[in-house]
Design brief:
With 1517 residues, the protein is mainly β. The chain contains 7 helices and 98 strands.
Length: 1517
């Protein structure tokens, strides 16, 4: 028994009535849907009034999409009651809510099936079921997924393909144009790859525009390279396509879509076609629907790519590829309206003007008037300026009907305005006013000025691109020229050490790279980088920070070390020269476009020059002992020079930033002192005794000095950029700690050294940190101080000490690392706050702790809201070295406030706020935790009360995923509660529902369960056959995976016999039993079964057996008798056979016929086993003329086809010999003179006959053509004449016999008009009309006459006589006083002649006087015996023709006329149509027969006498 569920307006459990169950029977009636591809099953035969079964008004569309994209299907269903929609797939389930989501939108009535982040294993055939209590509708849809990227499971396959050299499949499919996200940093002046792709797909007329757009000016070079690329591309394209033509770039259509077209033929139809946008593959569909944005359709050879629902982000570079080869590229640009069209008010018959300005040149806009596209013509003028920025629409000669909304469209951008046409009140009524010469409308702004400004912007962008390309080429030329002196300098520096340095050039920037460890990097003053070179002797090379985009690098040395390079302050470069003695040459940073280079020395090493900060130069002086004097770069008009030395060492002078000077001090031991001042203050290096040096570089009014050391090491101090100081600490191991100061956001790190010393790193100018590099001995390189909020700290060393950190340039501090010989390194000498206070939220009753960390051990005080705090009253204040703590043991509301810690001039503050974590009421929590149970399609509602609080955030979650308001989810937030409503729940919506309350003090959660009840899923297959005998079939299945939320109650089994369409219910079994025995089977027959699972919610989908199951074993019939060939023709061979002698006791339901062609071994079945031939004869029509065949027959019963019969004799497919015979010929043909005559005669004969034509039994003239084809012969007379009228005879003769047929051809023309017409009155009231015969009467025996009459009363012409073969006619009822006119026409098969007009017959004209001779007129008698006025003519018509036979009889009283054939009266014979009108006696025969021949006689009899006439009729064959 079926159980149906009546769906109520559902919410949660307890909010609606329970389901009502009712019993009914389900009968499957197939119904046809209006939508193709939809299968409908109606459960009952007749639907109640107003009810309907489900149907689809919009079915899902097949989808091809890229892996990882968002895939979805949409469907709209109808039905009353409202159907339930369920989605499934053929190979797998859709119960995973993370991968499959079913939604319903009640506003649009759309059912959506969504698959976010679609994967390749989801490619399948999906089914959509719509079901209500009266029926079910089902539709299938295919999803294809394009795989991208590398898959681990495919690695073995890809390795095999690599081994077979199939590299194309291994490589990831990508466009030639790289996506913007993956696009490498483009070098300045480099040409975009899109430029070449566009040129290869563009017309030559567009070359100039594309070059101007990309800033290319060298057309000769461009054309040369383009031709080379085109040849390569055409060779690649030839591997996949041919006949590539008609490339049409992308454009906007009138319907708002964009499309581009091209034509080509695929060499391999299975080749894949890919679409890209800006280098990224885009999915598309091949069906033109509204499901996907992109569509690729094929119309013949043409491929049309279209895109709907255009948005600004659709602008981009589109490409179409076949496999890996690009076929077409086009650029889709979006333009905007700078000036929109404005409303126009025009007078009647005045011109109206709409004008606008767009942001980019466009040759044509789309104009619309009252939603109709407008084109150039008599009514509209469409104008475009030379720069294609100003567009105008002129509506000429405005009338009132022209008013309405007019719009201009440029892609997806549009603007519209009204045209108001006012009637001309001054115009005179009823007259059309003259057209006015004035124009109304316009934008009201200076369009030319706006267009010029926009054009200037476009030109500027174009020129900038040109300048970049030009600058790139010049830089490349300069780089090539600069390589020569560098090579010279490298080769001249020290030939005995032999260390090589590799230099790579990238674009316009030189970077030095070595094979050894890296040297120290100074601080950079901008985004540029500063790197130090490597040394072999353990010393380091410092690189100064660059102040601009330029780079500063150390030069190469022969001993493996790198020369130091000062930081450049502008685009200029600063590089150090090479030396022979292993020492380094420093180059100061240049602050302007000038360069700083070292001068030449006598010993082969160059002198170092500091970079100049202004127009001044800085150069190093020459030395005699091989050493050099470095000159620092001056930042103003001042100079910086290096001092002289006696022992070969040098003194470096740092660059001064103002009018002050910076000079290096002299040394005696070969060491040097470097000084570099950046402001009015001075920076000087201290003297040393052990040969070490002290470098100082101050960047502000503060001083930076290096400390003295006794152990040979030195302390360098980085330049401070604020009032703070930065100094280097002393070390014990002979190494030094440098603290650089970085001027930019970049990081600066020191390189590693071989001997355990470190490379120094300059500090960054922003929040970035600067840290020391790594060393081989485990220690870290020192980090320079940061110039902003960033920190700089020293790295660790082997001996336990830390490297010193340079001074910070902002409020943050710079601290030194720990050492073995001191507990704390000196970090600038002033206290600072390392970790300060921040705002916190404390829970009421819980402890809270606040900590402040200082860089030195110093005292401090705590304050709350300005009042000092001391330990006690629940508060503890402690100090541990440099760490200060405030502890609140149990927080109260009074503890809230602003806390502040003060230590000397330093302070930090933070606010503490005390509060509670949100809480739920226990009763509400218990009530909320109960599960909510709803049915599919119902709404689920959850409500949770809570106490009102500030800063409370309420969130709802389902299975850990936060729910957002929108779609089928409704979230209501009130001050004291929150509600969640889930509309139209699906089975997949079942799960955990959680509400979270969160404030700054914490969060609390409450959970519940949502259970959605639904029909169970189909039983699990496949169906197994447990037993099959001649009387029993037993099947078995598995329970469904999803029971729909409630237990399965029973299973229902249906059966279908093979060859039948009706499913019959066999019964049901309990849920515990998953097998069924069918005992009502017939031996040898096959059956299909389907099983339904049922629960209280309804029936599941069915599980059907894959193949039919036979009852018992197969019993095949014996062979039929040998087939016999009954007849053959070239198109058909007829067979017959006898039934088999032994049918094995199983009834035969039909036969299967097979054929085999001569000289072949393959037997071909002419009919399928499920389409048996029920008779014992068959006409084989699938034959080839002239081929020989043999046939065999098998008997078919319930078990299948039995043994085949012996083959028949060979039969040839040809026609048997037969006498010629003609098929449905026409024996009469009328042709107008001058036209061609075509007589077509079809015949059948075997063998083909010899055809002969005769004219009147004589051979035809040579100008008459005869065309013979198979089965037909034509006689053609090109230009006929009357003399061509004759009887033409066709004669067909072959070896079997011959046949004849006559065709009468009548060549005629429109007849000539009759002669003069005469009128005569012989009797009162009657007028005899006579005329001279037409000249064509003797030539045409089918010619006759027609008489028309006109009188002065009616003034109309009417036909009074027709088909007259005589030359007289008597007009009756001629009244006195009325004028009469008569017209006589000659007529034949071609039509009427011109009329012959009679004279006027009237009251006083042509009246015949009657002489009474003294006798009264009343005594005159008009009676007379019958007489024959016009006798019968002789007729010889062909058989089957029609015949008219007429004569004229006169008599008074009117005689009785009788017709006789061979003395037999035929007046009552229905084969003859006999009439008598006013004395004209006619007889008509529709088709003349042979027995119609003989003597015809007409007898007219009245009271005064008798008259007769006769003629003979001869019927021709």
């Amino acid at each position: 028994m079926f159980k149906r569920t009546k769906v109520t307006d559902g919410t949660a459990t307890g909010q609606g009535p329970d389901a009502e169950n009712w019993d009914g029977k389900e009968v499957g009636f197939r119904k046809k849907s209006k939508v193709p591809g939809v299968m409908i099953t109606q459960y009952i035969e007749k639907l109640p009034e107003g009810k309907s079964h489900p149907d689809f008004t919009r079915k899902p569309i097949a989808l091809t999409i890229q892996e990882g994209k968002f895939a979805f299907f949409k469907a709209i269903v109808t039905g009353d009651p409202k159907p339930t929609v369920v989605w499934s797939r053929n190979n797998g389930d859709v119960s995973d809510p993370a991968r499959y989501q079913s939604k319903y939108d009640p506003n649009s009535n759309e059912h959506t099936f969504e698959m976010p982040h679609v994967k390749p294993d989801q490619a399948d055939t999906y089914k959509c079921f719509a079901k209500n209590e009266y029926g079910q509708a089902m539709v299938t849809v295919v999803l294809n997924v394009i795989e991208v990227g590398f898959k681990m499971t495919k690695a073995p396959q890809q390795q095999a393909e690599v081994a077979n050299c199939n590299f194309k499949k291994v490589l990831k499919r990508r466009s030639k144009v790289v996506p913007k996200a993956e696009e490498p940093e483009k070098k300045e002046g480099e040409i975009d790859p899109k430029f070449w792709e566009l040129l290869m797909s563009a017309d030559k007329k567009d070359y100039e525009r594309i070059c101007a757009e990309f800033g290319v000016t060298d057309f000769r070079w461009m054309l040369k390279k383009l031709n080379e690329m085109k040849r390569e591309r055409e060779e690649e394209q030839a591997e996949f396509v041919k006949n590539l033509s008609d490339l049409k770039p992308i454009h906007i259509n009138a319907d708002g879509t964009a499309s581009f077209e091209l034509e080509f033929d695929l060499l391999d139809p299975s080749s894949s076609i890919y679409l890209y946008k800006d280098g990224e593959m885009i999915p598309y569909t091949k069906e033109l629907g509204d499901k996907m944005k992109h569509c690729l359709r094929k119309v013949g050879r043409k491929y049309i790519f279209s895109m709907r629902d255009l948005m600004p982000e659709d602008a981009g570079f589109y490409q179409l590829d076949v496999e890996d080869v690009n076929m077409f590229s086009t650029d889709f640009k979006m333009v905007d309206f700078l000036v929109k069209i404005q409303e126009v008010k025009a007078m009647e018959r005045e011109d109206a003007v709409f004008e606008c300005v767009i942001s980019a040149p466009l040759s044509k806009l789309m104009w619309f008037g009252k939603n109709m596209p407008l084109e150039q013509g008599d009514k509209y003028d469409i104008e475009v300026s030379e720069d294609k920025l100003i567009h105008r629409l002129v509506v000429k000669d405005c009338m009132v009907v022209d008013k309405g909304i007019y719009a201009a469209c440029a892609g997806i951008k549009s603007c519209n305005a009204w045209l108001v046409v006012e009637a001309d009140k001054g115009a005179p009524k009823g007259k059309k006013t003259a057209r006015k010469t004035t124009r109304a409308g316009g934008s009201g702004t200076d369009l030319q000025k706006v267009a010029q400004e926009q054009q200037q912007i476009l030109d500027k962008e174009r020129e900038e691109r040109k300048e970049k390309i030009k600058a790139a080429r010049e830089a490349a030329a300069e780089a090539a020229a600069a390589e020569e002196p560098e090579k010279t300098a490298d080769s001249g520096a020290g030939k005995d050490k032999g260390a090589a340095v590799k230099v790579e050039r990238i674009d316009k920037t030189s970077v030095a790279a070595t094979t050894t460890v890296a040297g120290d990097s100074g601080s950079g003053h901008s985004a540029g980088k500063a790197s130090g070179g490597a040394k072999q002797d353990g010393s380091h090379a410092d690189a100064g920070g660059g102040h601009s985009a330029g780079k500063a690098s150390g030069g190469a040395r022969k001993d493996g070390s790198i020369a130091d390079a000062g930081g450049g302050h502008s685009a200029g470069k600063a590089s150090g020269g090479a030396k022979q003695d292993g020492s380094h040459a420093d180059a100061g940073g240049g602050h302007s476009a000038g360069k700083a280079s070292g001068g030449a020395k006598q010993d082969g090493s160059p002198a170092d020059a500091g970079g100049g900060h202004s127009a001044g130069k800085a150069s190093g002086g020459a030395k005699q002992d091989g050493s050099h004097a470095d000159a620092g770069g001056g930042h103003s008009a001042g100079k910086a020079s290096g001092g002289a030395k006696q022992d070969g060492s040098h003194a470096d002078a740092g660059g001064g930033h103002s009018a002050g000077k910076a000079s290096g001090g002299a040394k005696q031991d070969g060491s040097h002192a470097d000084a570099g001042g950046h402001s009015a203050g001075k920076a000087s290096g201290g003297a040393k005794q052990d040969g070490s040096h002290a470098d100082a570089g101050g960047h502000s009014a503060g001083k930076a000095s290096g400390g003295a050391k006794q152990d040979g090491s030195h302390a360098d101090a980085g330049g401070g950029h604020s009032a703070g100081k930065a100094s280097g600490g002393a070390k014990q191991d002979g190494s030094h700690a440098d603290a650089g100061g970085g001027h930019s956001a970049g990081k600066a790190s020191g390189g590693a050294k071989q001997d355990g010393s470190h490379a120094d790193a300059g500090g960054g100018h922003s929040a970035e940190e600067a840290s020391g590099g790594s060393r081989q001995d485990g220690s870290l390189a020192d980090a320079g101080g940061g110039h902003s909020a960033g920190k700089a700290s020293g790295g660790a060393k082997q001996d336990g000490s830390l490297a010193d950190a340079g001074g910070g340039h902002s409020a943050e501090e710079a601290s030194g690392g720990a050492r073995q010989d001191e507990p704390l390194a000196d970090a600038g000498g002033e206290p600072g706050i390392t970790s300060g206070l921040s705002d916190i939220h404390a829970i009421r009753g819980q402890p809270a702790e606040l900590t402040v960390k200082m860089n030195t051990d110093c005292d401090g005080a705590w304050f709350k809201d300005g009042e000092p705090l001391k330990s006690g009253g629940g508060i503890s204040i402690t100090k541990d070295a440099n760490i200060h703590k405030l502890t609140i043991h149990s927080c109260r509301d009074t503890d809230s406030g602003l806390l502040r810690f003060v230590s000397g001039d330093l302070s930090t503050e933070g606010r503490i706020t005390v509060g509670d974590v949100p809480e739920f009421d226990e009763d509400d929590l218990h009530k909320f935790s109960k599960p909510v149970i709803v049915r599919v399609g119902q709404n689920a509602a959850f409500k949770m009360p809570f106490q009102p609080q500030e800063s409370l955030t309420v969130s709802w979650f389902k299975d850990g995923t936060e729910l957002k308001d929108g779609g089928g989810v409704k979230i209501v937030r009130e001050p004291n509660h929150s509600r969640l409503l889930l509309r139209d729940c699906l089975r997949s919506d079942s799960g955990e529902i959680k509400i979270q309350l969160k404030n700054p003090f914490g969060a609390v959660e409450a959970t519940s369960q949502l259970i959605v009840l639904d029909r169970p899923g189909p039983p699990e297959g496949p169906v197994e056959t447990v037993e099959t005998t001649s009387s029993v079939i037993e099947i078995k299945w598995n329970p469904p995976k999803d029971d729909g939320g409630s237990a399965v109650t029973n299973y229902i089994i249906e059966r279908q016999e093979r060859g039948h369409s009706l499913w019959t219910k066999l019964g049901d079994v309990s849920a515990e039993k998953t097998s069924f025995r069918d005992r009502n089977v017939t031996h040898g027959k096959k059956y299909s079964y389907r099983i339904y699972a049922e629960n209280p919610q309804g029936l599941s989908d069915s599980l059907e057996t894959a193949d039919s199951i036979m009852a018992g074993i197969m019993i095949l019939s014996g062979p039929p008798g040998k087939p016999k060939v009954v007849s053959t023709s070239k198109t058909c061979i007829n067979l017959t056979w006898t039934p088999p002698e032994d049918d094995k006791g199983v009834p035969i339901i039909g036969y299967q016929v097979e054929k085999r062609k001569k000289d072949t071994n393959q037997w071909l079945a002419l009919n399928a086993i499920n389409e048996p031939i029920e008779d014992v004869n068959y006409a084989v029509k699938d034959v080839t003329e002239g081929a020989e065949y043999e046939f065999r027959v098998s008997a078919i019963n319930e078990s299948g086809a039995g043994d085949a019969s012996p083959p028949s004799a060979m039969a040839c497919a040809k026609n048997p010999n037969m006498r010629p015979c003609f098929k449905d010929p026409e024996d009469f043909l009328v042709v107008r003179a001058g036209n061609s005559v075509r007589v077509k005669i079809s015949y059948e004969a075997e063998p083909p006959p010899h055809i002969t034509w005769l004219k009147d039994d004589e051979p035809i003239a040579p100008w008459i053509n005869v065309i013979n084809t198979e089965g037909m012969s034509q006689l053609v007379i090109p230009s006929s004449k009357r003399s061509d009228s004759a009887i033409y005879t066709i004669k067909a003769k072959n070896s079997v016999g011959e046949a004849f047929f006559d065709v009468e051809v009548r060549v005629t023309d429109e007849p000539k008009c009759p002669g003069p017409v005469e009128l005569e009155q012989t009797v009162y009231g009657k007028v005899a009309v006579s005329w001279v015969p037409s000249p064509d009467q003797e030539l045409d025996d089918r010619l006759y006459y027609v008489v028309s009459q006109h009188d002065s009363n009616t003034r109309m012409w009417k036909t009074v006589a027709d088909r007259l073969f005589a030359n007289t006619y008597t007009a009756h009822n001629i009244l006195p006083g009325i004028e009469y006119h008569f017209r006589v026409y000659a007529k034949n098969d071609m039509g009427l002649s011109d009329p012959s007009q009679s004279p006027t017959w009237g009251a006083n004209s042509n009246r015949v006087p009657i002489s009474s001779n003294g006798v009264s007129s009343m005594e005159i008698s008009f009676e007379r015996p019958p007489s024959i006025l016009v006798p019968l003519k002789v007729h010889t018509p062909p058989k089957g023709y029609q015949l008219y036979m007429t004569c004229a009889v006169r008599g008074c009283p009117t005689p009785n006329v009788s017709w006789y054939l061979n003395n037999t009266c035929i007046n009552s014979d229905k084969n003859y149509y006999i009439t008598n009108s006013c004395g004209v006696c006619s007889m008509y025969i529709l088709r003349v027969r042979e027995n119609d021949g003989g003597e015809y006689r007409v007898v007219a009899v009245n009271s005064l006498g008798k008259a007769e006439c006769s003629t003979k009729l001869t019927v021709r064959d």
